[in-house]
Amino acid sequence: MDRGRVTTWLDEKRKKLVGTLPTIVFFIALFWLVSLAFGDTYLLVVSPYTTLFEVRFGKYNPPSQYARFFLVSAFALVAARLAVANPVLCVLVNLAMPFALVYMRSSQLNPRRYFPYTMLFAFLELRPENLIETFATQAAVLAASCGLLSAVLLVSGLIAHYGRQARAELHANVQRLADDLNRIADGGVGPILSQELLQVRREMAELAYTAREDSSAPARVTNLLDMLATLAQRTAYLTGNLDWTARNASQHADCLRELASLTRELDLAIAGGGDAEKCRSLLPRAHELLAKTHLEEDRFRIFFQSYLNMAILILRTASDPYQRVWHLSPTGRARVALFRKRPTLDSFEMRFSLRCGAVLAVSCLANLLFPVDHLYWYVLHAFLLLQPFPDESSRRMRTRMIGTAIGCVFVHAIALLNLDAVGITILGMILIAPLYASTPGSVTSAFFATAYAVSMASVSIDDAYATSMRLASLVLAIITVALVNRLICPTSDRRLFVANMRQMLDMVRRSWELVRTTLDERVDTVVSSETLLHFQMVHSQAAGFVEELASAGEKNREIAALAQYHNAAERMLFCLWALMCELEQLELLVRLREVREDERKTFETIIDLAEANCEPERFGTNVDAAEELLFKLSEPDLRYVLQQYVDRAGELRLAIDDARGALVERPSYLDEIRHVG
Hints:
mainly alpha; 29 helices
């Protein structure tokens, strides 16, 4: 083997080990805190809290996050106590809890957000006697664990100033956006720059979505990220039609340079935490640009005005130290929730919650009913093997079986050394380091997890029994998870893509609802921002599936069968993105009162026609009737945006027809079973 490659490999492993040192130290500290203060029987909670530490370390943690550690832990504790009360409650609670911990916290965009607290709930059930006989002690263990977790994260956050990281990323992306505006001014929107604008839009959307979803930035920074993601979206709006580059080129170039200059100064004003005076000084300039510039080309004019309107909102927010941080009203929260969570079997969250509930109910019931020493390893294996995507579950079944078998051989070899309890404990502490430095789900991770768990168990039970029980419980878990993945709400790649397509079509319909609501009442800006972010994230995931269609047959037969519809799928995704662009612009125009009162009934009729035809089976029908009504509107920007919507809706209808419904029709249950696992 090449010596240089070995050196590089060792260097990478060393860096990874160093990077995980905080997690390793936290595990060891919590291990000894629980062991010395409460006893070895309560050590099972150490892993869930270490996972929580691993997830939150290196991120900004708001005060509410520390309260959440205690409140959700208490909720999991009470639920686990109910679950071990009797077999009926065990099944009911384990079926219900995933809807609180999986359905409400995870999504196909952030699928593993459920993991730490659901792991805590499941692991609390592993030893029913701790909940039944010594409930108060178990509660004290959780309180002490939450206390240590909060203290370490709070201190590390104060030292490292993690709250500034999101602002630094924001700064880099705004500078990139300003550079792109100058590049458009110099050469127009060519194919390369078009891809760059879409990439900036996607990256800023991901940054804003993650900051809000994971509470990983201060509230004011999160609001700015939301607004700047919308700014990037409005710039990417230019890629929808390139005709403007051939006309009025000089005027457009001057406007773009003005926007680039304003964007750079806006960035300087907000980069260091918000220079209120600088922001206020930029407002007159932004208003002047908005008022004086007359632009003939429709798409460019709409882009220019919408960009400046959002820039003004950013400056107003950043210039006022008493500005109310965006908090969704109850109505706004409900609207956003409807975009994100759908209580249907099409929903990824619903399907995974049902599978998770089934696995927990079966494994925890067996652990409760059969008093077999260390049978709780069955629950542990089953929970870790169950993954949001069945393909990942199948991969982990293979890697965990191999790693577990090797780990059992290792423990048998260690047994020949006849180590005492102190020696085994020291060995266990040593094994923790490579365990957390390993890639989750890999053979290496499974090996070290088995070596640690079985060697520590051999202190109290025979090592031959421990290794046999470890392997037997793994086999039982593999059978359980494989059957659940295949028979209960199976989720293939095609099913997820179809669900994403139908969700995006439904979001188009709900955007029309938002436009209708904006006619009559004030709608929080954050509502349209949040819905747009969510659409972009779903769209990005769907685009990943379409890329796989281009390499048909390399992954599975199901994708190979759909490869013939690759071009149609690309057109569908482009049209859906364009439709949401137009709707976002339309909602802004309505908010700016561009709909005249005497034309309101005509506008509402157009909304009715569009809203009634957002189902995949009839999307884009009756467009002729809607198109005739457009000429009754006097505002040219409204006519242009609505005409673009009508045109894209017709193109989307043709793309759906070309795909013969294969990309929007739900696969049958039998098809799902054939292609899962």
